[in-house]
């Protein structure tokens, strides 16, 4: 069984995928690179003086893949709870099981709503780690704040969800911090 499935490849979904794959979690990302990021010019993303959203997406997708995440150009038709975890069905009818699902659908939130989550004018309510009240299901990015969408906030949402998943897998608070090589 796949440990984590991410649906959506904007900054929130790719950030979650990066943290999970980098830390050894079997991760599939279902996405078609149709994010609104392709309409963005990033001038307010800390550490990036200026970059088009399309360039950001290309770099982010390559980075996530380099850590072993499986990016699939497939649309998801449905999500259902299973005895253990979830079953994600793609539009071709294939079924994929996962312990954790991170929805990073953007403004529409179609799968989250079809799953039965309530969406208000401000988005789908979640806690600070992206938990929505369904064990193992996380909602990140624009779906949670439709009127205050920013790439850097969405990336943070994805990171928070991934760290919560990693903490649950490891049974204690997980911290992802990399150190540069020691100077010789």
Can you offer a commentary on this structure?
The protein is of the alpha/beta class and 184 residues long. The protein has one domain: FAD/NAD(P)-binding domain, CATH 3.50.50. Helices cover 28% and strands 22% of the residues. It is built from 4 helices and 9 strands; from the N terminus they run βαβββαββββαβα. It has helices at 11-22, 53-66, 110-115, 151-170; strands at residues 2-7, 27-30, 41-42, 51-52, 70-72, 76-81, 86-90, 95-103, 137-139. Strands 1, 2, 5, 6, 7, 8 and 9 form a 7-stranded mixed sheet that branches. A two-stranded antiparallel ribbon has the order 3-4.
Q: How much beta, percentage-wise?
A: 15-25%
Outline: globular
CATH topology: FAD/NAD(P)-binding domain
Total of helices? 4
State the major sheet.
Answer: 7 strands, mixed
Q: Just give the CATH class.
A: Alpha Beta
> What do the pLDDT scores average to?
94
Number of domains: 1
The N- and C-terminal alpha carbons lie at a distance of 43 Å
Structural class: alpha/beta
Known CATH architecture: 3-Layer(bba) Sandwich
DSSP strand count: 9
Q: How large, in whole angstroms, is the Cα Rg?
A: 16 Å
The parts where pLDDT drops under 50 for at least 5 residues are none
Q: Please bin the fraction of helical residues.
A: 25-40%
What is the quaternary state of this protein?
single chain
CATH superfamily: FAD/NAD(P)-binding domain
What order do the SSEs take from the amino end to the carboxyl end, as H and E? EHEEEHEEEEHEH
């Amino acid at each position: 069984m796949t440990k984590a499935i991410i649906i959506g490849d904007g900054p929130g979904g790719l950030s979650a995928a990066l943290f999970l794959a980098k830390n050894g979690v079997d991760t599939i990302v279902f996405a078609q690179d149709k994010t609104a990021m392709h309409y963005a010019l990033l001038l307010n993303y800390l550490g990036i003086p200026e970059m088009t959203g399309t360039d950001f997406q290309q770099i982010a997708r390559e980075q996530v893949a380099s850590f072993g995440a499986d990016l699939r150009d497939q649309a998801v038709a449905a999500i259902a709870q299973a005895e253990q975890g979830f079953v994600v069905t793609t539009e071709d009818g294939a079924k994929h099981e996962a312990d954790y699902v991170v929805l990073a659908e953007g403004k529409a939130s179609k799968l989250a709503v079809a799953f039965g989550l309530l969406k208000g004018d401000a988005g789908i309510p979640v806690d600070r780690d992206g938990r929505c009240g369904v064990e193992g299901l996380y909602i990140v990015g624009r779906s949670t704040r439709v009127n205050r969408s920013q790439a850097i906030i969405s990336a943070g949402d994805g990171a928070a969800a991934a760290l919560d998943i990693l903490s649950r897998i490891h049974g204690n608070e997980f911290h992802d911090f990399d150190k540069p090589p020691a100077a010789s």
